[in-house]
Amino acid sequence: MPITRAATTTTARRAVVRLGAVALTGALLAACGGTSADTSSDGAGGKVTITVDLFGSFGYKEAGLYSEYEKLHPGVTIKQTDTEDEADYWKSLQTRLAGGGGLADVQGIEVGRIASVTQQQAERFEDLRKYGADSLKEQFAPAKWAAATGKSGEVLGLGTDVGPEAMCYRTDLFKQAGLPTDREELAKKWATWDGYLALGKQYKAKATGKSAWLDSVGSLYSIMIGQEKERYYDASGKLIWENNPALRTAWDHAVQAAQGGLSAKLDQWSPQWNQAFAAGSFATIPCPAWMLGYIKGQAGESGKGKWDVAALPGGAGNWGGSYLAVPKAAKNKKEAYELVKWLTAPEQQTKLFEKQGNFPSATGAIAKVSGAKDPFFSDAPIGQIFGEAAEAAPVQVLGVHDQNIAQQITNALSEVERKGTSPEKAWSNAKKGVANTIG
């Protein structure tokens, strides 16, 4: 998903990766909730409008899934709204949840926020077991299912995608700088993050124009911390981020990149960042699976064949992924659940990966996409690369304030990157920011 997914916001998303159509069988139609008569109980005259509110775009509209669902369910209309920045979305959602008004039938929840829902806000969301969601447990990866389970076993959301990580890079810019372009050779050269930064120094010394090695040190930090099981909290729920050596390692590498002038100093999700994909302002970008569609949308058709994907330095990790939840204040709860169930089913998750690049969290879909290649990314075997990353990625400990802490740290790194603030001062600012944010 849905980057920043700031840990995962997405906007322009994902052009088509053609693997072939997935047939809709009679069994799938039955699983989708049947006829319009039993999916429009709240709608007058057999008609109902299901509202969906997301951050960025989860790719459902772009992949044609809404229109497909509407055809399968005459009388159902789906209306989506979305906010580009996840932090803005979450703030607005909290206000509406507190007031009980203005909520959509379906609300997106970023993985970095799901612990807040399960631990602090369970009473504000529907327990989807009442609609039969408990029967879907085996459909999802265990960690994905468990993260949206409340203290008393409530099912508070169904998983959309996950964010296995890789490295996307511009082969044309690598050639201009005299660097190798073969994805397997590069994976060996940057097997470690030190190797990645060393290659970045070579690039900086030889690159033409104003192209930097990577887009921002914030993205470097985010991808590295995504390789860790414990980041901001330990398994007991204790805050550990200040003294977590893995976090400091990610911080130190991001600082090295900033002080070494390897970054294009771009705010992720900003207009300038969006334009940089087509302009060639950076040669590499750490990319979870959902980032592929974003790159396509921003680079445009002229970028086809200039990009490639290689395995990530330092091992497998996960950055992002989301859930779909139904608020207690939703107008059309049953209809909302039926839509959520259909959108997160293996068949639809497979289609979404084929067309948009969102890597599935449904176990039945993961095997189906293993052979996928993407012509935009030089026919990179994305099914294999991201599939292996998803299999090897750690099951991350999720805390209530994961997203808030991550945002304060990336803000502090931006100070080092943009203003030349000392790492010590920036770290102190991050500590103050976290204290002010989470109390």
UniProtKB/TrEMBL annotation:
Signal peptide: 1-30
Record keywords: Signal
Record Pfam families: SBP_bac_8
PROSITE patterns in the cross-refs: PROKAR_LIPOPROTEIN
InterPro entries on file: Bact_solute-bd_prot1 (IPR050490), SBP (IPR006059)
SUPFAM superfamilies linked to this entry: Periplasmic binding protein-like II (SSF53850)
Region (Disordered): 418-439
Keyword Signal recorded: yes
Protein name: Extracellular solute-binding protein
Transmembrane segments annotated in the record for this chain: none
Organism: Streptomyces zaomyceticus
